[in-house]
Amino acid sequence: MIDQAKIKEILPIFLELKDSGDAHICKAIEELGIERETAERISAFFPSAFCRVALADHLQVEFPDSYMINGSDKLYPYKEEPIYAMGIELASIIYHHEQELSGIFNSIVTRSAECDAINRALNAGEGISGSKLSPIRYFGYKTIGKRRNVFSRLFS
């Protein structure tokens, strides 16, 4: 797993590249020595995790417990993603105890599809209290939704 010092290097990337696509963020994370599979999961799952922490206390909205990938209707549980769990824990720490990181925190939250969906509904004047968000469908990632074993890692 990634150590705390490396996470502190990774988080500012989201703010620095806030107007860039996920591929640019993944590349910047990889340039810090993080393998592609982990970089993709950080880029995809941290925004969803941070959004859940930021909005769970403020809105009566049920967040999904699973996600999907483009080209498949299979549901993948977030609970099987250690990077997602790390994102929840980290977001909670920053949200409650490290207000000096609010710019970085907000730049991660606003990248999430959940935040976008909630903002669109609110801006359209829709009531969202009691709503349940659909599972996010991630696309453009090469490793998300694929189980990798030791053999496949040797040849990647």
Fold and architecture overview:
This protein is mainly α and 156 residues long. It has one domain. 53% of the residues lie in helices and 8% in strands. The protein has helices spanning 4-16, 22-30, 36-56, 82-97, 102-109, 113-123, 150-154, and strands at 61-62, 66-69, 76-77, 131-132, 136-138. The strands form 2 sheets. Strands 3-2-5 form a 3-stranded mixed beta sheet, with no helix packed on it. Strand 2 (66-69) and strand 3 (76-77) form a beta hairpin. Helix 3 packs across helix 4. The protein is globular and about 45 Å long.
Write the layout of secondary structure elements.
Layout (H helix, E strand, L loop, with lengths): L3 H13 L5 H9 L5 H21 L4 E2 L3 E4 L6 E2 L4 H16 L4 H8 L3 H11 L7 E2 L3 E3 L11 H5 L2
Parallel strand pairs: 1-4, 2-5
Antiparallel strand pairs: 2-3
Helix pairs in contact: 1-5, 2-3, 3-4, 3-5
